[in-house]
Every structure is written in C-alpha cells, then in structure tokens.
Amino acid sequence: MSLKKGRLDNLISFENFSFVKINISDKEKLKKVFQENQFDIVVNLAAQAGVRYSLKNPHAYVDSNLVGFVNILECCRHHSIKHLVFASSSSVYGANAKMPFSVHHNVDHPVSLYAATKKANELIAHTYSHLFDIPCTGLRFFTVYGPWGRPDMALFLFTKAISEDRPINIFNHGKMERDFTYIDDIVDGVVGVMNKIPKPDDKWDANVPDPGTSCAKYKIYNIGNNNPVKLMDFIGEIENALGKTAKKNYMDMQPGDVRATYADIDDLAKIVGFAPKTSIQTGIKKFVSWYKDYYR
C-alpha cells in the first residue's frame, strides 16, 4: 500500500536498516544491491500477491513471481548466500480438500495463476538448492492480516466500507473459512527459521517422495494460525470493533477462490517452537485501532 507523507521516513530511520526501492524483475539493479552489500541470509517477501488480480493482469505475476524470483535465486547463487527464506502461499493447496493442509500433501492442482506462480517458486528453489547447494526454506503463508496490510484484502476492504456505511461483498454467500494469521505471529515464524538452515533429509525416499522434505538443503513449512475462522464470524468481529453493523451484499464464489484453508503447523512448531499467540478478536481490534489512527 502507499505510505502517507512522512511515514516512510519513520520506517527507514533505523541505524541498521536501509531502504532501496527497486523492482526485483530488474536484473541489473538487483545485482547491484547484492554487489554493494554482504548478505548472509536473504528473506524474499517480494511478490505480486492476490488471487483475483491475477485474473486481470497475469503478466504482473509472471514478471514479479517468476522472473523476479529467478533473479533473486541467481543473486543468491553468485554471492554465496548461506540461506534463502522465501514466501510461498496457502494458495498452492488449490483444489485439495483434505484438512488441515499439510506440507506433506501433494499440491499439483492450483486453481489460480497466483497459486501456480507460488508453486513454481517452490519448484525452482528446490532446483537451485539441488544444483547449486543453496539452502532454501519456503513458508506457505495463510491469510496474513494486520496493520499496514494490503488494501485489497478482505479485512481492509470490509473495515473501510463499514466505516463509510457502504455495503460489503461477501463471496460464496458467507460460506467460507480462512486460517487468518496475525502479522506479529508471521514475523515470529520468519525470524525463527532464518538461522534454521535446512539439511538434506536422510530418510527421504525417491520411491515415495515426500513433498515437504528433500535430499537437497530444502524445506517447506506452513505458517498459519492453525485455527480456521468462519467468514461471518470474522465480519462479526470487525463490526464489534467498529461498533457498526455491516450492510451485506451476498455473492457467488469468485473464480480461483477456495472455500476453506487450515494450516497444519506441526513441522514449524517442532523446528522453531512456532505457536501463534494472537486471537482473531485481538488481531482485528489492533487492526481497527491502527486503521482509525492512520486514516483519521
């Protein structure tokens, strides 16, 4: 999202933080960033996100999520990066119906271009890990929300519309569930895996290959709240936090959408002790408080 005047200065005033605005699909500019710095660990959260926008502008996803991601990997390859941590997505589970979603399940049936590009990221990262010995960890994010979130996400759209007494669009007539995960818990998980460099799995069997592990220095984790919430309960919490009742416009399911998500986080819990701490009630209250302050 765009930053209000003065907010960016506040974000980049830390001594050990520098902000460089480039497009990761620009190979030469990205190379320069790596050349001018000595990174040990790279955490790539850059991507063109969103399921619905991928129906309108597929080339943005190819440029950022495919071309840009390969550029990141090439820079890691040529600068001896000790660990690449990258954002994948719960969207990769696509048409899967078995819950909770596990990294040990096959994910070969994406239902959106966005999901397909994130699955491609996992495959390409595995290839680079295998060929060039780059330790790679992919994190499948589950519906991240909180302050400074994307303005096209449901929480932002619903909060804005309800505040302005406009109706909200509720897809699949409200019969949706999401494993909403608060940003603070996501950050804890990302930081936790940074120094957990993956090792080859000695038990990996090529005859019965486990999608979640590898004979390469490669690992995939779910990072979610491990507690799916019904969409109508989610909306109810927004209404409570705002003190207003939403005007509701019920609609059919959108192309590329899925009815429910639910993260099995056992592997991440074992490796870094990951345990989400933020309830949906607390998370939404924090978001609404931030929203009122930011847009006052």
Layout: helices, strands, pairs:
Blueprint: H1 7-11, H2 27-36, E1 41-44, H3 53-56, H4 58-78, E2 83-89, H5 113-132, E3 136-141, E4 144-145, H6 154-163, E5 168-170, E6 177-178, E7 181-182, H7 183-194, E8 218-223, E9 229-230, H8 231-242, E10 248-250, H9 266-272, H10 280-294
Parallel strand pairs: 1-2, 2-3, 3-8, 4-7, 5-10
Antiparallel strand pairs: 6-9
Helix pairs in contact: 2-4, 4-5, 6-8, 8-10
Account of the protein in words:
This protein has 296 residues and is an alpha/beta fold. It is 39% helix and 12% strand. The protein is built from ten helices and ten strands. The chain has a four-stranded parallel beta sheet with strand order 1-2-3-8, with helices on both faces. α5 links the parallel β2 and β3. α2 runs parallel beside α4 (58-78), α6 (154-163) packs across α8 (231-242) and α8 (231-242) packs across α10 (280-294). The protein starts with 6 loop residues before the first helix and ends with a helix.
Main beta-sheet annotation: 4 strands, parallel
Across the major sheet, the strand order is 1-2-3-8
Low-confidence stretches at least 5 residues in length (pLDDT < 50)?
A: 1-6
Could you spell the SSE succession in H and E letters? HHEHHEHEEHEEEHEEHEHH
Specify the helix fraction band. Answer: 25-40%
End-to-end gap: 17 Å
Shape: globular
Determine the structural class based on helices, strands and strand pairing. alpha/beta
Strand content: 5-15%
Number of strands: 10
Number of contiguous helices:
10
**Rg for CA atoms:** 20 Å
Q: Let me know the average pLDDT.
A: 93
